[in-house]
Predict the 3D structure of the following.
Amino acid sequence: MSSSSLLPLSADQIARLEQLVSELAPSQVAWLGGYLTGIGAGGAVGSAQQAAIAPAVAVPSVTILYMTQTGNAEGVANDLAAALKAHSIPVVLSDVAEFSAKKLKSVGYLALIASTYGEGEPPDTGEDFYNAVMGDRAAKMADAKFAVFGLGDSTYEFFCKLGADFDSRFEALGGTRLLDRVDCDVDYDDQAAEWVTTLSEKIAAEVAAAAPAPVSALSAIPASTQYDKKNPFPAELSERILLNGRGSHKEVYHIELSLEDSGLSHTPGDSIGVVSQNSNVVVEALQGAMGWSGTEDADGSPVSDALKLTYDITSLSPQVLEKYNAFAQSDTLTDLLQAEKRSELMDYIYGREVIDIVTEFPVSGLAPADLVGCLRKLAPRLFSVASSLKAYEEEVHLTVGAVRYCSHSRERLGVCSTFLADRVDIGDRLPTYVHANKNFRLPADPSAKMIMVGPGTGIAPFRAFLQDREADGAAGDNWLFFGDQHATTDFLYQLEWQRFLKSGLLSQMDVAFSRDQDHKIYVQHRMQEHAAQLYAWLQEGAYFYVCGDEGNMAHDVHNTLVDIVAKHGGMAVDAAEEHVKNLQRDKRYQRDVY
């Protein structure tokens, strides 16, 4: 028997009810719930106008703010909004970039989901809000009840710094903490779900105690199947092509996945999440170092399965070392874990994996369940969408650089990149989902100019951008900067760029192949060579995009952009920095960096 057959409504009635509810504001849904409850309790079926005469109880709203670079914080914010709406509590949901910090003085309930980016920095769109809240003229929050959820990556030194900053600052401004702050690593889904449930139920209980109101029963209507991070779609690997020529030191693949019958839709600028597995080679090496056969129990499954499918065994974090040292009791680790040794600890972690610590600091007889209890969950990996649905229906293309290197006398393998390169065959199905990124989007105006900087695999989203513009017949000029090591072996998608140049879709392309001459040349050098033209494009309203390595390239490109604006705009460096920030605020300077 289907779940829908258990409902006392026909399919047509459910469809009409869903249509009505979709058009209502939260307060209207709450009123409708009360109206129907009154009828169900035996009241007369009067007109809606008569029912509306009864005074409505004001339900306080919850302000949900998120600051995000890749969309994770926004996803948690959306989940919280849905949970609160299920309790008939209205919400104000906003990116901090679109919310004035001055409004915090009038907020009742506040939930902030904050991603810490890079080395303790706010996301590009969150810098102004962060500075306003931390500044001397920040609004007082005496009437606010707040909760903060922090997202970060514990392999970085300033893990979840922004969440901690906001949490302490809100309290200092007079706010009352609803829940203790939660700091989450890359495997945040379970903690996020628990936090959403706990916070929404706590707020609902407070609201009900102050003014009891009926709860809508509309959540009983079954939703159609949707594929997302919690329920990924099994996409078929339909193509894999090595893009580099013979003799290259790089290994970059063009990957095609079929989305047929998934209902999934992606937009240029989005990413695709791929749920991967650890390499058998890495798993077996770790099992061998521990003296396990692989059949031992670990968290309810054989340890070989747990290490391959569930846990991150190729990266370390201070939290992992701290948990492991509870068993190892190593003086060396204890010293490294001291707060004043943070920099040395991060240097130690860099380039090491779980097998390194269990061999360097062995624990005799350590149970598999105890070891996996120290580890982070294996998180999906995100890859920029490299195709437009307008050019390739029901499929998505990715540009994946296989990561292989040697450190501390061991060969290392990128988990998902080598999974896609080596360990899946054409026709195999991979759990995937669309990860929306509203902070990296094509200009709404098809006549607007675009400047795109994408060295290496950072070229991926711009392939999608140009395919989309070609399909739409967009009139805007497009300028692409690309860089890699050698022109003869590493000119990714060369024939496609040549076709776009010939058709006029691509107005200009400047390339930087760093190893083709005695001195290294990078994309920022090409920008400087065309500085006057680049500045002129910006003055004409061009959008500026950067995708690729955050560690060096993105910083160098940013500094070069500021330098160009200063020199050709006749500005001091501080004024040029502010000009570039204004481009970011206006979403004319967007970055997708990792």
Remarks:
- The chain has four domains: 3-220, 233-276+380-435, 280-372, 450-593.
- The mean pLDDT is 88.
